[in-house]
Amino acid sequence: MVTRTFGLTTITLPELDEPGLYLSNVDSLDGYRGTVPDFAYGDADLRSLGLAETQLVTGRIACVRAKRVEFEGVNLHGVEIGDSELGSAHWTGSKLTRVHFRDCKLMGTGRYRNTDLRENDLSAIRGVANLAKVRIDPGQQSDLAEALVHELDIIIGDD
Fold it and tell me: Where are the domains of the chain?
């Protein structure tokens, strides 16, 4: 298991490449009895991605582009989300445990408190004020500045 330590807190990331673990390719994240275990989902260009009362357990979501994302009562455990664009994201009543976002564009009005956003493009994120207490890489400061300038409609120049 891969762990990272931040101050006094240690977190365990999903280990999806461990020997003996097989992820089944799925065409949908709607599962039998609301549970999708050991899955791989990706290469999807969607207008909308909506899930309700679903458990996504041990899996990988990759290369998903959705203009609108609505998760209500969706619990993710041991899931890696990578190379994806999740636009107008609205997550309510959901729980994320051992979830890792890698190279994602996250957009929406949700609060990201205590979320690890390292390795993600933050230049197009909206609702910058909702990013209180997130963790970023030093190089992402310019992404946040760009997002803030755009959100506040700041004009840069002499005239």
Answer: 2-108, 112-159
Task: List, as one string, the DSSP characters of 17-57.
Answer: T-TT--PEE-S-S--GGGEEEEEEEEEEEEEEEEEES-EEE
- What is the token pair recorded at 59? 């899996």
Rounded distance between C-alpha atoms, residue 32 and residue 3, angstroms:
31
**pLDDT tens digits, one per residue of 94-140:** 888 888 888 888 776 566 777 777 777 777 777 777 788 888 888 88
Q: How many alpha carbons lie under 13 Å from residue 105 in its C-beta half-sphere? A: 15
**The token pair that represents 64 in the structure block:** 């998903």
Place of tokens 């280990």: 15
